[in-house]
Amino acid sequence: MTKNTAAWARDLARKHLETPLPRRWAHTQGVARQARALADMLGDKADLLEAAAWLHDIGYAPDLVNTGFHPLDGARYLRDIHHAEGLLCQLVAHHSCAQVEARERGLANALTSEFGLEAPPMSDPLIYCDMTTGPDGQYLTVETRIREILSRYETGHVVNIAINKASPDLIQAAREVCESLTSTRG
């Protein structure tokens, strides 16, 4: 991972999200802002987290949709077209408990065979960044963010089911990162 990875990731995300999905682009900018706020805590891993923050939702880009499951579509694009570092692809593939939704969509085998059985190191900070950023890039508590997501998907929708199942893990990860951040700033 070079020091320019976050800048490359920002430019790539902008290319695919800014015009076709301006609200998703606003969210992505907010997630990256949260990642930069963790830089002191993460040290030499800060650039990787920021790159993952910029790219976590790239699979929503209309020109990249294949399966319709954005973590898998985005990670495949990064791996197959850009030959991105494996850990970056894994972070995108597994972001915010994606394996839960992958099971609901019947894509768990594809996700785990291509990007590993478990979420990689640095997943909790990425959860914190994603799950404390609203759709317009604003800061939200993790609980408010979960309610916001659930409000957009009716009961029975695959995203609603997955977020309900993943909520305890999402909340725990975000709280642990928040506590680490607080102790780092001391």
Account of the 3D structure:
It contains eleven helices and no strands. The chain has helices at 5-17, 22-37, 39-42, 46-55, 70-80, 86-94, 98-105, 108-115, 123-131, 142-152, 158-185. The longest helix has 28 residues, at 158-185. It starts with a helix and ends with a helix.
- Contiguous uncertain segments of 5+ residues: none
Number of helices: 11
Q: List the secondary-structure elements in sequence, H or E.
A: HHHHHHHHHHH
Number of E strands: 0
Radius of gyration: 15 Å
Structural class: mainly alpha
Provide the helix percentage: 55-70%
How much of the residues is beta strand, in percent?
A: under 5%
The coarse overall form would be: globular
* End-to-end gap: 29 Å
How confident is the prediction overall: mean pLDDT? 95
- Largest beta sheet, briefly? none
